[in-house]
Amino acid sequence: MKITVIISAHRKGRELECVLTGYAMQTRKPDQIIVAQDGRDPAIGAALEAVRRRGWSIPLLYQNQEQRGFGKYRALNRAVLAASGDLLLFTDGDCIPRDDYVANYVRLMRRGIFLSGGSHVSIPEAYHLRHDLLEAVRDQSLFDYGYLSAIPGFCKSANRLTRKRWLARALDVLTQRNAFSGSNSCAWRDDVLAVGGFDEQMAYGGGDLNMGLRLNHIGVRGVRARHTLVSLHLDHGRSYYCADKERANHDWNRQVRHGRLVLPRESRICDETVFNLAARA
Predict the structure, then answer these.
(1) Residues 6+ away with beta carbon under 8 Å from 87
(2) 3-class secondary structure, 147
(3) What's one GO MF term for it (predicted)?
(4) Which residue intervals of the chain are DSSP H helices?
(5) How many separate domains does the chain show?
(6) By CB neighbour count within 10 A (0-12 exposed, 13-18 middle, 19+ buried), where does 134 fall?
(7) What pLDDT does residue 192 have?
(8) Which residues constitute the domain of residue 224?
(9) Model confidence at 280: pLDDT above 60
(10) For residue 145, how far is the Cα from the chain centroid?
(11) Residue 116's closest CA among 230, 232, 253, 222?
(12) Using CA atoms, how far apart are residues 29 and 72, in angstroms rounded to an integer?
């Protein structure tokens, strides 16, 4: 079983270097990583070159595109079509994985589900902009509760970062929620293709949930394991947020939910892939 990690990137080259370093530290390496950039910021290319100079050995594909508004889902659909893995792990270019992240996704995935780590443990922007985190990623001290709890503004419990598998599993059972998170979720590639990928018309706020709803409608159930699938989010402002567009997204998601819709309104995957949905029914 092969797994492709798809990293959505925009303009954060420094953060992406930390993220890719996290994947280099994995106990179970991804079979492929695709960096899908909305836009053409040279800082992203510089981050890729920096990790390659350190002896990078994981197959790495870099895709970018002309930026036309919020184009994250267009970039992700291009990556889905290029992916070689049976499993697709979706994350962002500011989310640093713990060293057991990929191994736990592979261990827990099974047919008929998508798997989500849900919300991240965040490192405040005021801290990570002033500190070089690369060495702490390499030796994994960044994931120690003692390290994080000393950061001003950090407010998670120690259980959120536990490495005790039995405890993480027990806590996951108590906090299950059927929701897809574009920064911390994994699905079978053929399931993503079957629902036509991401809806490229959607702006920020609700587009990931939309994917989960449509997966539900072909019988794929969401399972959350946020205490097991640990990554750290380098927090930041969101200048691209628009309340009106988020409301429109939620209105559309209600229609998708109540109408049990499967295919998106607009998708590169729908344009380029032939489906046989009746065969899945």
Answers:
(1) 1, 2, 3, 4, 105, 106, 109, 186, 187, 188, 189
(2) helix
(3) transferase activity
(4) 13-24, 42-53, 72-82, 101-108, 125-128, 134-138, 145-149, 165-174, 189-194, 207-216, 243-259, 268-272
(5) 1
(6) middle
(7) 97
(8) 3-279
(9) no
(10) 23
(11) 222
(12) 25
Cα distance between residue 75 and residue 198, in whole Å: 10
Q: What is the pLDDT of residues 62-103, one digit of tens each?
A: 998 888 878 899 999 999 999 999 999 999 999 999 999 999
CATH number, position 274:
3.90.550.10
- From edge to edge, which strands make up the β-sheet containing 184-188? 60-65, 32-38, 3-9, 87-92, 184-188, 113-116, 221-224
SS3 (DSSP) at 88 = strand
Q: Whole-model pTM?
A: 0.92
CA distance 88 to 81: 11
pLDDT of amino acid 281? 38
pLDDT in tens, 6-39: 999 887 788 999 999 999 999 999 999 999 998 8
Identify the CA nearest to 238 among candidates 229, 246, 230.
246
Q: What is the 3-state secondary structure (H, E, C) of 181-211?
A: CCCEEEEEHHHHHHCCCCCCCCCCCCHHHHH
**Alpha-carbon gap, residue 80 to 249, rounded angstroms:** 22
* 3-class SS of residue 222: strand
